[in-house]
Design goal:
The chain is about 35% helix and about 20% strand. The strands form three sheets. Strands 2-3-1-4-5-6 form a six-stranded mixed sheet, with helices on both faces. The protein has a six-stranded mixed sheet with strand order 8-9-7-10-11-12, with helices on both faces. By secondary structure, it is an alpha/beta fold. The structure holds guanosine-5'-diphosphate (2 copies). One guanosine-5'-diphosphate (GDP) binds near residues 33 and 38.
Length: about 450
């Protein structure tokens, strides 16, 4: 490293920064209007509104990355609440439940100017049951006079209430210090699971693509559809299914089975549920209804899985309904709409007839293998050396930026750091990624490449 003009500390720092694996997850829950979204904005350090002006606006972004005192984590915002859909208590319970499931720690926000309400108490019950670490935020304490209101929230039995003003930032530093104490270094959900235990699969896709049918099919039995409101009962959330002699854990299947049919707000719940399932899983099987055009919603769901850095398989379902014409157009759509995830293994299935069900597990195994791939530094640099001499970066301003060396900083998904003598253009980075994939596989996994440029 030294002879290439990087000092060792810089190299180690870059590798450590890039190699962080999946981040722990913080959920922010509470009643409507207590200031959850305002607090999330504060935590992620962004002023522009996550808070929506219009009620009922579909929000599909529910997780954000944040950093405090040099530690990074994800925040799940549950502020996209819809009052009319389920009624207050059920709505709050449902959103809190999904978010808590996916979280490693929870910030429970209460409006200190109002005090604890029955709805707050209902969330406290959920929190107790979940057993996750909780930090209690007594919000809307905009000045010292509100501190007494905050103190009354000791009555919730969740320990010390932290008086904050999400709006003005008062007290949020202390709150975040406490959050960091509560958050594990790595997400327990995904990576604290017993090594050698069952792999975790999230079955995701927009409503009616056939998730529940597929789950029933692979589980080999028809199941009773649970018809209760989300949050009112607690059926087992994850399900163990034996496939090909191996146990797999399908996460968040209660969400799939519950089949709450909502009119408005359904998209928001679907997004929250998808985000929760993805956080808990190692691999996402994204179902797409092959009989219909690939939609923006399908794309958003795929983006969620990719951004979360999970392994991914695409299952085109309802294959039994396709005629030749639809098949032709589907292939064209896949090319134009889903070109950016051409690395994901693909299966064409029918949950109804059972077509190609046996291909699902091998595809999932392929994706997990790609996700876990580690390329030894020697092999990587031999490859980079050849690549750079055969395909040098175009000369810019009389200079030719060169990749000097690289290393894989982490896996699940694979993360690389390349050290270069100058800025690498976007097109060249894409080229490097393509060649890396050709050389080492990485089927079914997103890969991250960061580039450090020598000063
Ligand atoms: P959510 O429904 O829980 O996500 O709540 P929002 O973040 O949308 O906030 C609801 C309302 O409370 C908005 O009008 C916010 O401006 C206001 N609000 C949020 N935090 C504070 C605070 O710390 N102090 C005051 N005075 N108002 C706040
Ligand atoms: P979910 O909302 O994603 O769980 O979707 P469901 O499993 O409830 O399926 C929605 C509808 O699509 C139901 O009427 C299913 O019978 C139907 N369906 C699911 N898979 C298939 C399939 O492979 N072929 C056909 N023809 N219909 C299917």
């Amino acid at each position: 490293a030294a002879e290439e003009g990087f000092d060792l500390e810089e190299v180690e720092g870059a590798i450590e920064a890039a190699g962080h694996g999946p981040l722990p997850v913080l959920a922010v829950v509470g009643r409507p209007n207590v200031g959850k979204s305002t607090l999330v904005n504060r935590i992620i350090g962004r002023r522009e509104a996550v808070v929506e002006d219009k009620p009922g606006v579909t929000r599909d972004r529910v997780t954000y990355e944040a950093e405090w005192s040099g530690r990074r984590f994800k925040v799940v915002d549950t502020g996209g609440w819809e009052q009319d859909v389920l009624g207050i208590d059920a709505s709050v319970a449902a959103q809190a439940e999904y978010a808590i499931e996916a979280a490693d720690a929870v910030v429970f926000v209460v409006d200190a100017t109002v005090g604890a309400t029955d709805t707050d108490e209902a969330v406290v019950k959920l929190l107790r049951r979940a057993g996750k670490p909780v930090v209690l935020a007594a919000n809307k304490v905009d000045g010292p006079s509100g501190e007494a209101d905050a103190a009354t929230l000791w009555s919730l039995g969740l320990g010390e209430p932290f008086p904050v003003s999400a709006l003005h930032g008062r007290g949020t530093g202390d709150l975040l210090d406490e959050v960091l104490k509560a958050l594990p270094d790595a997400p327990a959900q995904t990576f604290g699971a017993a090594p050698g235990g069952p792999r975790r699969i999230a079955l995701i896709g927009r409503p009616n693509v056939g998730k529940s049918s597929l789950l029933n099919k692979v589980a080999g039995e028809e199941r009773v559809v649970v018809n209760e409101l989300a949050g009112t009962t607690r059926d087992p959330v994850d399900e163990l299914v034996e496939l090909g002699g191996v146990s797999w854990k399908f996460v968040d299947t209660a969400g799939i089975r519950r089949r709450v049919h909502l009119q408005e707000g359904a998209d928001y719940y679907a997004s929250l549920r998808t985000a929760a399932a993805v956080e808990k899983a190692e691999v996402a099987v994204v179902l797409i209804d092959a009989s219909e055009s690939i939609s923006v919603q399908d794309q958003r769901i795929i983006t969620m899985a990719v951004e979360a850095g999970r392994a991914m398989v695409i299952a085109y379902n309802k294959w039994d309904t396709l005629d030749e014409e639809r098949r032709y157009y589907l292939e064209r759509e896949i090319e134009t709409e889903l070109g950016q995830i051409s690395w994901a293994p693909r299966v064409n299935v029918s949950a109804r007839t059972g077509r190609h069900m046996e291909k699902l597990v091998p595809a999932v195994e392929t994706a997990l293998a790609g996700w876990e791939t580690r390329v030894p530094t020697g092999r990587l640099n031999a490859f980079l050396g050849e690549l750079v001499s055969a395909h040098p970066h175009p000369i810019r301003g009389g200079k030719q930026p060169r990749i000097l060396f690289g290393t894989q900083a982490g896996s699940k998904p694979p993360r690389f750091v390349l050290f270069a003598s100058g800025f690498l253009e976007h097109g060249y980075r894409r080229f490097v990624e393509r060649r890396l994939r050709e050389e080492f596989g990485f089927e079914g996994t997103p890969i991250h490449i960061s580039v450090r440029v020598r000063e």
